[in-house]
Amino acid sequence: MKNYLVPLGAYIVGSLPLAFLVGRAFGVDLRRAGTGNMGAGNAMRSAGLLAGGTIALLDGFKGIGAVVVARAFGMPLWGVVLTAVALVFGNNWPPARRGGRGLAASAGVIVTIQPWLILWPFTWSVIGWKIGGGFAGFFGWGFLPVIAVVSRQPTEIVVLTVCLALAMLVRRMQGNEGYVHAAAFFRAVYDTDRPWPGFASEDLGPPGSRRAWRYLVPLGLALSGYTVGVWWFTRGELVTLSVVSGLLLVAAVGTEFIGKWMFGAMFRDGVHRSGSEVSRSTAFRAALVGSGVARLIPAGGAITPVAMAWTARKEVRGTAGAAVRATALNYGGLLVGTGGALLWVWARHPTTAHREGIAGLGTVTLLIGVAVLFGSTRLASLARVLPGRLRDRFIPSLTNEGVDARTLGMVVARITSEAATLGLTLAAFGLHLKPSQTVAAFGASQIVGGLPGTPGGLGLTEAGLVGGLAIFGVPAAVALGPVLVFRVVSYWIPAAAGLVVGGMTFLGPRGGDDTDD
C-alpha cells in the first residue's frame, strides 16, 4: 500500500501553492506578474531576489523531503524514483491552477538521490547568467539523461532523469497560455515565445516548423547513434563514475564552452576593428554555429565564416570578413600550438616512438601555422584578388592589422581551453598525459578531422586521436572509450547548442535585404 500512498502524498505536497503564497507575501500575484509563471525565476524578476530565492529553496526542499520520506518508508529505488516524479508532476501540473517548470524541485530530487549529477544543471545555471536562463535550463535538464547514460547510472536513475527532462520540456511547451504550435520550439528551448528582440513567433508558421524538424531530427538521430556507440564500445570498461570523475567531465564541458566563447570573442574583436559592434551573446551564438552546425556537412569548416556572419546578420551586417579573420586566427593558432607541442615532445621526451616523424611533422605544422597567422594580418590585401562579388562582401570588414598581445591572448585561450577538455576527459578515465602530449594529440586530431569528406570530421577525428594517443603509450583499446566520450563533450554537445541558438536564424523568415552577410 505504501508504494501507492507515498507517491500520492508526494503529488499533493508538490501541488501546494507555495510560490503563490510567497508572491502574495511580497505583494505580487505571480499569476499576473511578469511571465505569469509560478516559479522562482518569475518571482525573482517580479518581486526581487529574496522572493525568488525563497521559492527556489521551498521547492527544492519539497524534492528533498519526498525522497527522504520514501526512503524512510523503506521503499526500493524504483519506489523512490516514482515518488520523486510524482512530486515534480504535482509541482508542474497541480489541480485547478497553473504550475511552475519544476527545476528547483527537480534539483532537490537529484541532490538527494544522486548528488554529483546536479553538477551538470548547476554548471548550466551559471552559464545562464550570461546566455539566458531559459536556454541554460534546456541544456541543464534536457541533456541530463545523456549524462546519466554516459556515466552508466542505474536504470532507475536514467528513467528519473528522462522523466524530469520531459516534465520540464512539456511544461515549457505548454507555456502559461496553452500550447502554441508556432512557438513550441522556442518555448521548449528558450522558455519564451520570442528568443531575441524583434522576432515574432507567428513568423514561424507550420511550414517553418516543418523545416525546423528537417534539421532537428537528423541531428537527434546522429547524436543518439553516437551515444549508443559510446555505450557499446565502453560497456566493458566504463564503470559508474566516481564523484571526482563526474566533476572532471562537467569541468570538461565548461572548458569546451570557454573555448567557444573565446572564438566568439575573436569574431567580436574583428567586427570592432572594422568599425562595427556586435554583442557578446551574438558573437557566442555565431561561434557555436560556425564551429558546430556548419561542420555538420562535409567541408563545413570552409563555410564557417559565412555561417557566423549569417548568424549575426540580425544585429549587424557585413561581418563576413571579421569571421574570416577569426577563423584564420583559430586555424593558425591551432597549427602553431600543435607544431610547437610536437617539437616539445620530440625535444623533452626522447623515449617517444616515431621521433623523426614527430620532429618533421612538428616543423612543417609550425611553419604552416606561422604562415596562416601572418596571412591573417594581411587579409584586406589578400581579398583584393577575389572575384568582384566576394571582394565586395568580404573587404568592408577586413583589416590589415598585426596580431597584438590581446589577440594572441584570445587565440592561446581558445586552443588551451579546448585542449584542456581532452585532458580533463582523459583524467576522468584515469589517463594522464603530459600537457605537451595532450596538446599535440588534440591538435593533430583536429587537423586530421578538418580534412574534407566527412561531416564534423566524424571518424577521422576519432581515428586521429586514437592514433595520437597510441604514440604516447595509450593502447587503442583503452583510448577508444575516452575518445568517444571526448567527442560527445567537445563536438556533439556544442553542435547541438549551436543548432539550438543559431539554427532558427537560418530557418526564420528572410527579409527583402537578408541576402547580405
At a glance:
The protein is an all-alpha fold.
Q: What radius of gyration results from the CA coordinates? A: 25 Å
Number of strands: 0
Largest sheet: none
Tally of alpha and pi helices: 23
Spell out the helices and strands N to C: HHHHHHHHHHHHHHHHHHHHHHH
Helix/strand-derived category reads mainly alpha
Beta-strand content? under 5%
Give the low-pLDDT segments: 196-216, 236-240, 506-517
Helix content: over 70%
How far is it from the N-terminal to the C-terminal residue, by CA? 65 Å
The tally of structural domains comes to 2
Shape: globular
Q: Name the average pLDDT.
A: 75
Set out the fold topology:
Layout: H1 2-14, H2 18-25, H3 40-47, H4 49-72, H5 77-92, H6 103-113, H7 119-131, H8 133-142, H9 144-150, H10 155-174, H11 184-190, H12 206-234, H13 243-273, H14 280-291, H15 304-311, H16 320-348, H17 355-376, H18 379-382, H19 388-394, H20 405-428, H21 435-449, H22 460-471, H23 476-507
Helix pairs in contact: 1-4, 1-5, 2-4, 3-4, 4-5, 4-6, 5-10, 7-8, 9-10, 10-11, 12-23, 13-14, 13-16, 13-20, 13-23, 14-15, 14-23, 15-16, 16-17, 16-20, 16-21, 20-21, 20-23, 21-22, 22-23
Top keywords for this entry?
mainly alpha, 23 helices, globular, 517 residues
Written account of the structure:
The chain has about 525 residues and is an all-alpha fold. The protein has two domains: about 1-205, no CATH class; about 240-505, no CATH class. It contains 23 helices and no strands. The chain is globular, with a radius of gyration of 25 Å. It starts with a helix and ends in a 10-residue tail after the last helix. The model is unreliable at about 195-215, about 235-240 and about 505-515 (pLDDT under 50).
